[in-house]
Amino acid sequence: MFTLYEGREIEWELSPEDFAYICSPEHALEQSKTHYDLDERNYRSKFSPFSVPERLYSGLPIWRRAQAGYVDPIYDSIKEHLQLGWLMGVDTTEQWNWVENPFYVDENGDLICDRAYLYHEGFIRQAMDAYEFAVAERQGVKALPTQKYDHGRWGSAPVQHAQSTKTINSKAAGRLLAAGGIYNGNIEGYAKTAQQRCPGGLRSSS
Asked: Bridge partners of 113?
């Protein structure tokens, strides 16, 4: 379930494995519209700007953006504080994906912010510092590497670095084979090999 935390709370509330499921500020704001009451009229007292709004359990958003010229104090506050890392949205029930989850745990157990240039320094620092604290509280045991899936809008699929398939034209292939044949003292064998392997271009994977 999506949950909003005050930024300083996550070091106590999250296990090291949970940090990979911190949501981007944009995604957290969208989720907040459904899971939290952003309508100021529903609060008896003035909403504290550093507080987490009341949770909604209906699963249906009740807030609507104010008309032009009017302010939305709770919405505007949540938006700013998510960007700065003063609030954090986390959803550990959803599969990790690179669009909505800025952080992942690498093979060394370190928390990494992918595409850090997209996010405010305060947001990144809050998560990094809290992760180190959570690891220290677990006697230095780091999280296992994040299982990275990119399901975005196109269905689930493991994220893999695509293997590039390059086509080498026959002239380039011939030069490479010639160099190999000459180097190995097999000039006669080169011609036969080049003819067999390069009639329409040699394909190599890297």
From this structure: 103
